[in-house]
Amino acid sequence: MDRRHFLKTLGISAPALVLPIDKALSQKTASLESMPNIVVILADDMGFGDPGCYNKDSKIPTPCMDRLAAEGVRFTDAHSPSALCSPTRYGLLTGRYAWRTRLQRGVLLSYDPPLIEPTRMTVASLLKSSRYETAWIGKWHVGLQWSTKDGSPAEDTIDRTDPGKTDEKRQLNIDFGKPVRGGPTTLGFDYFYGTSACCTSDPPYCFIENDRTVVVPTRMSREEWRGLPGFVPGPMADDWSEEDCDFILTRKAIDFIDDHVKSHPGQPFFLVHALSSPHNPWLVPETMKGKSQEGPRGDLITVVDWAVGRIVDHLAKRGLMNETLLIVTSDNGAMRGASGHKSAGDFRGYKGRSGRAATGSPSSLAGRPRSGRGRYRLRQSL
To answer: Which pTM was predicted?
Structure first.
């Protein structure tokens, strides 16, 4: 099975991966060496009109994504199953609508329990059963089981009516030194390095490796960040950097590729690299400030483009480009662009609701937009 045949068998949209790929993997004639590596780079809140390859008038330079589109396949009719983060990730992992779960609207909050049952097949567990090594690196946001010091439910530490006004000290009841259960490594992923929810707007502000926090958060988030769009105050690790989280995650993704090549030669791998950019509060790394004409949000799109370029260059360096299916996509649509930039292209809908912009933060939208029951329509565009 060559790469183009696999791509046609696979289908178009990342949220539908689990369904057609099952048929491909069941073909006993496909040898382990003939199965391609699969890399999904998932941006957070990037819109249809952000990359130049979809919008010739974009105010954001995206040379790496534009080159990938020119040399590969560009999809123009792939639909998200929702307009918010948690339900789109649920769709990506399971191939199902999130409204089939307890999540009937909105998103999960920072310490909410897992949305995916441990017995539920995911695209990772499916691929793992066909001898893929699997990794999720980046934003998870499908729930984790945290422990508390007094045995109370972890989800009660967040003010559900207004997460932005949550008492930070109340969150210190979470026992960050104990294992975190119900995450990627219980759902088919061999390796996880990332955050429980959005890296830059949802506590706890620390990285998790497999089922343990890398650095236990012991201090409170910076006072000057209060009031930033979407930012929820909470415990933070001493080494945490809002601006550099995607740089760190991209290095971890590259490290996974290197470790795989060294430890599992000839075995295919499945990697989801779930970025935080361009999610608010739009704190831009110094090296990326002013890179776009759209403003801070646009500058963070250039971080996404940088990450795409780094992964592509490293796959080429390792001689893996011709053996890898690389999918660059976004989760749920964009916030409205600034300076006249059409972040959603000519479409009217934006993140969180259809027909008009969502001006609130993900947390302020948590009780309002539905996950969506619209028709899930896919058409291949070659």
So the answer is: 0.86
